[in-house]
Amino acid sequence: MPEPKAKILVIDDEEAICRNCEKILTRSNYEIKWALNGYKAMEMMYKEAFDLVITDLKMNSMGGLEVLSRVKDEWPQTQVVVITGYASVSSAVEVMKTGAFDYLPKPFTPDELRGAVRQALAPEELFNNAKPDVKKISRKITTHQLVGDSPQMQGVIRMLAKAAPTDTNVLIYGESGTGKEVIARAIHANSRRKGEVFFAVDCGALAENLLQSELFGHTKGAFTGAVKDKKGIFELADGGTVFLDEVSSISMSIQSNLLRFLETREVLPVGGAAPVKVDVRLVFATNQDLKEMVSQGKLREDFYYRIMVYPIFTPPLRERRADILPIAYHFLDLFSHSMSKDIRSFSPDAAEILLDHSWPGNVRQLRNAIERAVILCEGRTITARELEHLQDKPGEEHHQAAYTITHDYQVPANAEELKEAKKIIRQLAVEQVERDFLTQALENADGNITRAAEQAGMQRSNFSNLMKKHGVRAVKK
User: Which residues form the Sigma-54 factor interaction domain (predicted)?
Assistant: First the structure.
């Protein structure tokens, strides 16, 4: 049976606009209906479900903002694209903060309209074959840090959709804080394994012998403290997915064991004699240049080629600025709800600060900034005052964040919060070391980047990328 067409409702008080949209979108195999005012549109939506609403902003009878607000309140899964002939920055911010998926100024071309519609409906394509209960869970996962319709993120979503149905090894690489674990969870949630377990392992947080035991298990008496047999994560995850984060930190000996596991799919517990066959899908992640690690002898070449089957690059937030506000509003909704506050928007000045910031810590830093702003906010709108720490010089917000975490943080209440706190503190510590390393290397080289990289034993491109990441500039003496 053919898949059902997506149903779209067009709302505009000019009949010519409605008919033109219908003509454009019907050719793209969508089912189109239209209404000349918001009240009629609401009547239609109470009678049947729509996947997408396209509404004019300025209408004589129930304006587009009220339509948008009603739709998001009563049909939150329905996407909304706002069109208007009165385009301005303030109106764009207003509709985006109210929950619109996109904002399309008039006049628009047929390709622009089709593109906006295609992007608004794209997330649904990942879940067409999902069961209702799984669909709800999957949507929550994939809309987390994958929020955004920038070309970069749409590319990630397309690659994710292709990889998910397979059992191919996937390597997710990119800077820290770009959402690699979220993508791994989305791959699992859209795979045939979605009903099975998902294990996330932070390889950089475990000592070599502990990581070996955690992954492969051990038998009683295998080492001091092994008082009973213990199944490893690979065995416990049989049928599911294991996500190995910070794979670059794995020792050469464990790389060898993992290589053997990738070839045989057999687990040999520490101290064991008989291997156990398991069916596990592996997803890897790193923020390091693995090819460079191979050339330095820190990563086995055969292991590199085994995990580099299907690489997915997670773009840094500074390279997809169109996604900053949608992600910020996502976190605003999340934290406002969890803190029982009624904060609904960002002021234009606050939105400008968010868009202008370089976000060296990427989405994780943005999440922390919004959480802090929600805590500080006493009204219904986040203002520049709650985001003033983002206006510091490059790198200064990290010093402040480090002080907040090490001195003013709340004691973790459970193991999950402890894990997250440790991860943040480790990241902040690493970032501080990297900045000090760059500053000293540049100082020793009198501000000459090429010489600084050479003396530090790095490729100039990698050295320059690290400078950009931390906002460090070369000052020649």
Answer: 146-375
